[in-house]
Design a protein that fits this description.
Elements: H1 4-7, E1 8-11, H2 15-24, E2 26-31, H3 37-48, E3 52-60, E4 64-67, E5 70-73, E6 77-84
Antiparallel strand pairs: 1-2, 2-6, 3-6, 4-5
Length: 96
């Protein structure tokens, strides 16, 4: 079994993620590429002490970038959008 802190890498603090948090009580995280929905749910419940209703995961492809005359690619990553149960609150920005 994986450590909860190795499943969740970082919170996503984009404009779209903040809009989802305010309107639908959903929080977005960058998670390990090999993590599944069950592991993400257990990790969020264990770390943040909240009840999770649903987890949606998305595999995001890394962008191709040019550095002068060289071409490279950013790493692929996985995003998880976690829906919290009614009445639960999680504020990543302020740490509560």
């Amino acid at each position: 079994m994986k450590n909860s802190y190795s499943v969740i890498i970082a919170p996503l603090l984009t404009e779209k993620a903040m809009a989802l948090k305010e309107s639908d009580n959903k929080v977005s995280f960058k998670v390990a590429r090999d993590a599944n929905k069950i592991e993400v749910k257990k990790a969020v419940e264990e770390i943040f002490k909240v009840k999770v209703e649903d987890v949606t995961t998305v595999n995001c492809k890394g962008k191709k970038k040019k550095f002068g005359r060289f071409e490279g690619q950013r790493s692929d990553w996985k995003k998880a959008v976690v829906t919290l149960k009614e009445g639960e609150k999680l504020d990543i920005v302020h740490g509560t």
